[in-house]
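Bumping my old thread because nobody answered last time. Still need a sequence for this structure:
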């Protein structure tokens, strides 16, 4: 089980006392469960400059059974005009969370939006910093609050780790690896239900010559487009674009007219009512791009999600690759119970 530190409200600096206050929770991606044990949280005031030391630091206790915890940290002086962020972590460190296929963090840290004496209310974006090995840190932004559509999800995190590992293969043989490791004329990639865009943006970083189109419903576009504007890709030959796509509607012309190599779907089957429309959309895309691979990352939460595989088979899709990525759970691990997993399936039209 993966848990995420979340700000329920934007942190606020009291300019009279110099104290910064926030209300946070530690919850699952769906927000349907809270961290079930005792935990020491480290609250830190930091700048955006990694070489600068932590300004203020204190610990806060999360006690089993809690649904939220209040943070109070300070004190900043009136003459201090630097922008600060409130960083919450399970360790006293500014380091990014390391996301590996064999090691998904159990608890993800969070940085608030910036604030200062001149602008005491923090911005409404939460920053999550991560890295997939010894490479550069990445950032993905979420919205403050509890809207699940505008947060990162377990299957997205696991797929990022998986894809990063795939692109490191020196002699790729599997169909997905061969597409992702192209050195010229990178793949054309369509992501459905992109949300914050963490997976599509990771592909753009891993394959700098790729063209990536992120899609979702209108309510997710603001945070998705913000993340696209913040991403730094090391190539000018590829491009990242966004578009609204409702699976109940016909495909837009820009999608019908493009030959895609990859179609990405991450954590989009949790609501089984949407599965028929999802499969219909996948079939429509692949009818126009018959050589495309469909990569589906899913954490099965309900038995009703089995309909996805039935409908995919009826639509003529066959599984060509299948992987499982274990998720951490200290409590289950201690008593020997089976861990939750994210499954990654690669489909091709038969």
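Sorry it took so long. Here it is:
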């Amino acid at each position: 089980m993966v848990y995420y530190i979340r700000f329920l409200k934007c942190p606020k600096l009291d300019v009279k006392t110099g104290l910064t206050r926030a209300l946070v929770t530690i919850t699952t991606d769906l927000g349907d469960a809270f961290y079930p044990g005792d935990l020491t949280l480290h609250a830190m005031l930091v700048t955006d400059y990694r070489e600068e030391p932590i300004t203020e630091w204190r610990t806060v206790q999360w006690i089993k059974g809690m649904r939220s915890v209040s943070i109070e940290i300070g004190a900043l002086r009136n003459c201090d005009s630097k922008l600060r962020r409130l960083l919450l972590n399970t360790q006293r460190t500014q380091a990014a969370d390391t996301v590996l296929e064999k090691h998904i963090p159990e608890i993800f840290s969070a940085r608030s939006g910036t604030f200062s004496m001149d602008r005491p209310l923090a911005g409404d974006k939460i920053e999550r910093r991560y890295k997939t090995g010894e490479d550069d840190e990445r950032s993905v932004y979420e919205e403050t609050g509890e809207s699940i559509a505008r947060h990162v999800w377990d299957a997205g995190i696991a797929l990022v780790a998986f894809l990063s590992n795939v692109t490191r293969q020196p002699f790729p043989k599997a169909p997905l690896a061969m597409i992702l490791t192209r050195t010229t004329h990178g793949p054309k990639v369509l992501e459905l239900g992109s949300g914050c865009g963490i997976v599509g943006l990771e592909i753009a970083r891993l394959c700098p010559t790729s063209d990536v189109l992120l899609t979702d419903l209108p309510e997710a576009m603001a945070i998705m487009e913000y993340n696209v504007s913040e991403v730094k890709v090391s190539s000018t030959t590829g491009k990242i674009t966004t578009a609204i796509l409702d699976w109940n509607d016909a495909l837009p012309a820009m999608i019908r007219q493009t030959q895609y190599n990859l179609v990405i779907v991450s954590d989009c089957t949790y609501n089984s009512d949407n599965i028929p429309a999802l499969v219909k959309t996948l079939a429509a895309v692949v009818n126009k791009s018959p050589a495309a691979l469909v990569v589906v990352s899913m954490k099965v939460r309900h038995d009703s999600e089995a309909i996805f595989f039935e409908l995919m088979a009826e639509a003529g899709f066959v599984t060509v690759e299948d992987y499982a990525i274990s998720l951490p759970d200290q409590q289950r691990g201690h008593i020997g119970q089976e861990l939750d997993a994210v499954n990654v399936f690669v489909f091709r039209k038969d």
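The mean pLDDT is 90. Let me know if any region looks off to you.
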